[in-house]
């Protein structure tokens, strides 16, 4: 039963990929809830284009196979797949050394190991789907504070020059890794600076990618090239994640595009032929950020507001998505039992169930950085032996594949209705 004494049942601070996905999942799984999303950017049905034209410089996200299954159950995958490039193969190697391992989707009976989708396309797809739901939007607006009250929370909102309050049973903070609201509410974060930066850009190569994702570890840091572009034709465009120290980043940013391609060629090698183009470059410092306690009565942190990972393993959004579904599952339970959404028995169970997943994922991503960041000969030799071992030992390779595909953790129930149906397929 929802609480009619409040303005709404659930308030989501942030309407990005995490917040919008949570809102859509709630509309599908717990449709009786009144959900309000507060987003800083203006949102309007008129702003949604009829036809999506991918940009060469579009930022993208790696979606694991497990994330595809979640979006299928939410009824969104068929749309997302229109511009999602499948990953059929993953090639992991150590620059200048013999160690390498390869994963192939067909070996695991899957259509793909994962996908690469433009962030803007994902956002537009979510917005279009949400237009057909009763989810309420306050945009452009910003949550500026929150105070507890009996049975829920009172959230302060600023919209232009106006300030007002909105009451609800629970507040979900989904405004990203630079969440000012998280700090304002007193959540304590632990941050470990890797002393590196991620440079993000799209690149073109003389050879087609063959739907292969490359993870390349070098003495200067890891880099990844993910297939990008057409979902059905292996083209020559890839999404680059290039890890650089502060000084190396300054040097690369000072180069011309041709010089950047040459520097990239020296780091990555010739597995995709010659680098012919590099698009607009974005960069950000790499930090491991976690929150010891991501919930308190009436409040829950999700997505990057709760944990931000190194992008080397491409697990950040996939981990967040699994956490969102776990939270939705607990909200479904709360409604069934007549318990307030913000009750600590509900939010605490969400944290308990999700904690093991994020601890294992953080450990997996962090260990890759530490193991492959060592250049001492004995450690490098052991690392190469480990990569070769993954190729030779089926059990070890299956474990690594499950991590890469995001299928090794707990699988929350996404929807009573949708999970009972055969999900629509749109395999590439």
UniProtKB/TrEMBL annotation:
<dbReference type="InterPro" id="IPR002938">
    <property type="entry name" value="FAD-bd"/>
</dbReference>
<dbReference type="Pfam" id="PF01494">
    <property type="entry name" value="FAD_binding_3"/>
</dbReference>
<comment type="similarity">
    <text>Belongs to the UbiH/COQ6 family.</text>
</comment>
<keyword id="KW-0274">FAD</keyword>
<feature type="domain" description="FAD-binding">
    <location>
        <begin position="7"/>
        <end position="336"/>
    </location>
</feature>
<feature type="region of interest" description="Disordered">
    <location>
        <begin position="409"/>
        <end position="428"/>
    </location>
</feature>
<feature type="compositionally biased region" description="Basic and acidic residues">
    <location>
        <begin position="418"/>
        <end position="428"/>
    </location>
</feature>
<protein>
    <submittedName>
        <fullName>2-octaprenyl-6-methoxyphenyl hydroxylase</fullName>
        <ecNumber>1.14.13.-</ecNumber>
    </submittedName>
</protein>
<keyword id="KW-0503">Monooxygenase</keyword>
<dbReference type="InterPro" id="IPR051205">
    <property type="entry name" value="UbiH/COQ6_monooxygenase"/>
</dbReference>
<dbReference type="GO" id="GO:0016491">
    <property type="term" value="F:oxidoreductase activity"/>
</dbReference>
<comment type="pathway">
    <text>Cofactor biosynthesis; ubiquinone biosynthesis.</text>
</comment>
<dbReference type="InterPro" id="IPR010971">
    <property type="entry name" value="UbiH/COQ6"/>
</dbReference>
<dbReference type="InterPro" id="IPR036188">
    <property type="entry name" value="FAD/NAD-bd_sf"/>
</dbReference>
<keyword id="KW-0285">Flavoprotein</keyword>
<keyword id="KW-0560">Oxidoreductase</keyword>
